[in-house]
Amino acid sequence: xxxxxxxxxxxxxxxxxxxxxxxxxxxxxxxxxxxxxxxxxxxxxxxxxxxxxxxxxxxxxxxxxxxxxxxxxxxxxxxxxxxxxxxxxxxxxxxxxxxxxxxxxxxxxxxxxxxxxxxxxxxxxxxxxxxxxxxxxxxxxxxxxxxxxxxxxxxxxxxxxxxxxxxxxxxxxxxxxxxxxxxxxxxxxxxxxxxxxxxxxxxxxxxxxxxxxxxxxxxxxxxxxxxxxxxxxxxxxxxxxxxxxxxxxxxxxxxxxxxxxxxxxxxxxxxxxxxxxxxxxxxxxxxxxxxxxxxxxxxxxxxxxxxxxxxxx
Length: 313
What we know:
By secondary structure, this protein is an alpha/beta fold. The chain contains eleven helices and eight strands. The protein is globular and about 55 Å long.
């Protein structure tokens, strides 16, 4: 039984597009799915994956969905525990999140043909998308990672495959019924959400519609379960460098120039890998909110199989 307090207001769609729900081994997964009348035959279907935080949802990739839905099949999935996806009380791990991505990729293959698709993932979901690409290389043609985790500092992360930083004792403490919901509501107060978005954008000028949606989605039943796993480090991999190095598809990395996510010293580990490209993209960790045309222009050549504009850190 969920002990959530009263909902501030019902959750509305994060994106103005048809939405379906897939039954998967990771639980019920929500997917916004758009098929244009005249898709560019040279462009593969595109899967967008939002980041992981206390109030995450597909709203984080809405500007990209709006742009790409005019030219190609585009999907925006909501990871288990977020948005309209199932928010069950369970352990949210890289394995669970990666399995959800596998399920969406399988659904795309069933609907659009068994051909590799393009994937764009944000922040921590970059690790899940990369793991999916490592495990099923036939499914993913190209991978764009926006402000990816696992590349900060110089520490090498090559622990045994599947290992994480999970702190079971911390998680047990955080999920105690007497305070877990109150703690989560404290962390997702409107002012706190605004504070963290300012750190993400690296500016006082955040996207107000995103802030508003974050506040609402964090007040839905079960909203605390995945974020408390996040705080317990259950979703953070210690094998991610092994995963990144194993990728066979072309990879493009967008590196922020402002805010809390500007440390990419770990890219040095991949500098000899010709499959990887990286670009310093002016702005915070979600640069496409600040300049959608400029951001997508950097990816035009990448999606078509050529080096990106502005490649090179």
